[in-house]
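Archive entry: two folds, one per protein. Generate the first.
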Amino acid sequence: MQQISFARVFGALLMAASLSASSAVAQRPGRWTGTNSFGYPMNFIVSLDGLISDYRTGAFLVTCPSGAQDLFSLGGFGAPIAIVEGSFSSDSTIRDGDLALSVFSGTFVTETEASGNFHVLSPRFRVQEKAVDSQICTSDFTWTATWQSFGAVDDSATPLNGNLTCTSTQLP
């Protein structure tokens, strides 16, 4: 009969426990910047208490059922989003009077790298000859970002009152 030492068994158990532990990564607080899948810059801030705030999508293409497309961007808005076990996702509740529904989600891949998705539903007018009705236009895109600095960075595009800033450009 082979004898196994306590240290060898304890070491094997410790290694098994560490391999099965959560893969959540601690993310650095500060400004994170990157690009979205349309190639436009995006950014957000991670607070010391693990909240995402002041997120900006960068420009993205919204496509409507009618075939219309619009270049759109959202920025400097949103309630803080909690980071839980290295991931986050904004509230997806539609409220009366909302301009758009947006869901910003992501995962911190390392301490200084993150990636995720952005989903937008935006009501728009549809004009056909003399008739006008509405349609829901959408955009789904990805983003990647890296940690840049501690604290907020001066950004003249930040609305002074903290409200939603939208930019829309009709494409030909």
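Generate the second and append.
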Amino acid sequence: MERGTASAGRPRILVVEDNDELRGLFVEALEEDGFAVLSAGDGAEALALIEREERCDALLLDDEMPRLRGVQLLSMLRARGIDLPAVICSGTLVLTPDERSKLRVTRALAKPVALPDLLSAVREAVRAQASS
């Protein structure tokens, strides 16, 4: 687990990505955009963070990861009543509108993703959490 610099009042995003370089790029971009950031290298590590009651306002996650895929993580969280909005970035995943709604995926982005699109999607997820 890596932690970004948390600051009171800043929305906190949990980045879940198994590619170290890409995870670092996402964390840096989000911090520069004003977010506090936690990160995990796979879904199992993210689940452990959330179970330890680490506060976060939204999830940014890959789907294709070892140990626990992004969609599996979301399904487990929803089954436990944890309803954080999520942005999924994937090179292969296609979700139907019904699946997106059920998993509370605010946006599904195709990799490679442009950072402005990623930041816009995360802001949208944070707004969704604030209005719920």
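Annotation attached to the second fold: The chain has five helices and six strands. Helices lie at 20-32, 43-51, 70-79, 97-103, 115-130.
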